[in-house]
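Sample intake sheet
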Amino acid sequence: MTAVVATRTTGSGTVGPARHWGTVRTVLRLHRAALLLWGLAVLGLTGWLVWLTAVTAGEERTRLENCDSAGQDWCDPAFGTFGFGEYVGGIGLLSAHAFLAVAAFAGGSLIGRELENGTAWLAWAQGVSPARWLTAKLAVPGLAVTAGATTLVLAYRWVWGADGDLLMGTGWMEGQEFVARGPVAVAYALCAVAVGTLTALLLRRALPALGVSVAVTWLLVRVLAEYRASLWPAVSRSSAAQVLEPPDTAWHLETGALVHGRRVPNVQFWQCEGTAGFRHRCLDDRGVTGFYTTYHPESHFWPLQLVETGIVLAVAALATVAAFRVLRRGTA
């Protein structure tokens, strides 16, 4: 007997597993160069991180130990670590901003070029519905982006866990380090796919869609980076006796004085320096009742990451829904 794949016939043609997989294969074939380039970039950056940790980090520690034994202060990690920190930081910069390349691809090549050249209408005329076409267009790069970005995040976190002491001067709250070490990097990449797709469907021209996709995604990142400190309640401490400093590993937000019960940041009372009695009277005359500091401890890394990731994924979901609606309205 011959095994036959069951299919369902509708007014628009024959639909079955073969047609679904055929659409996916078409997307893979059309964009194999971009997908291959993405895979090579991920493998290259991951391999570089492995090399830095497995080989360069040991050499770095040996040089620092030799410098320390010789009493040379300039060898302190805070003054630079012979390029190790710069290399790792550069990889973090590329990983954190990979979404720009994804947005350019989604807007210019994935959707924009096919709409501009008319090949999308050719696919729809051959029995592939616009909705199924767009689903394949989103699913294939979405899976590739998720796998690649997750690999980079895990590799970067591994380097930080193994040789974080060699990266002195780079805090967990730094923009590129914060993004590259958490799931928000994956969320930004997925959001770039959705925003690029929506932009291309609206503009229907490759080059304008590429530029607008990159600009919109970059703007989203900048806005969230600006308000990142407000995504989770910060820790606030106050003292009536002295100016407070946050912990060394904290993300310092604000330090100031309590003047007549009101917070006044970055206040300098150099004219009140002197004996304890003089200082107390001087501050009292100016209405100073204490000091405060506000910061995010390092333990807030994950709450901040998860809240920002949720916001970015919500934007991606809205852009995806909007893309399907625009496509349905344009092909009705």
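Comment: The two ends are 43 Å apart (CA to CA). The chain has two domains: 17-229+301-331, 235-299.
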